[in-house]
Amino acid sequence: MLFDLGAIDLSERFADSDEIARWNPHRGNMAFIDAIVWVGDDFRQGLAIHKVRDDEFWVEGHFPGDPMMPGVLMLEAGAQLACYMFNARKKENVLAIFLRIERAAFRSSVTPGDDFYLLCKQVKFGRRQFVTDIQGVVGRRIAFDARIRGMTRLKDE
User: Fold this and answer.
1) pTM of model > 0.90
2) Options 13, 26, 44, 62, the catalytic residue
3) Under a CB-based contact definition with an 8 Å cutoff, are residues 84 and 26 in contact?
4) Any idea where the domains of the chain sit in the sequence?
5) Digit-coded pLDDT (tens) for 94-107
6) 76-89: per-residue pLDDT in tens?
7) 5-152 adopts what CATH topology?
């Protein structure tokens, strides 16, 4: 794992959905972070949770009778944590767009009823760009991991 979850109190909440919405533009059924559980002192590492519900928009069709969270939505959840971390560290609310997903691997399914933890660890941080390693974890299983690259979008782009 990107860092030791055993050293973190998973019942704690650093930021709720309202605080997340201050930094992230995602709303409605496209907001995949329920709470930020923990953030490192320097905002280089963070942990979030998404409680996977049986009424989410993808459950009925992916796959009927045996729902599994689509991999692209797992990545999106991790990307939203990376966006939160980037904006909160900059102390500036900008729209982050993602340029690249590297080394993505899906290792385990995520299903309704799961507590889906998202881990984020900064690799590179700049004025407009960032590189972040992300993981999704259910229980002791890594559901996915990837490296993502993002940058702030300028008004005229």
Assistant:
1) yes
2) 62
3) no
4) 5-152
5) 898 999 999 999 99
6) 999 999 999 999 99
7) Thiol Ester Dehydrase; Chain A (3.10.129)
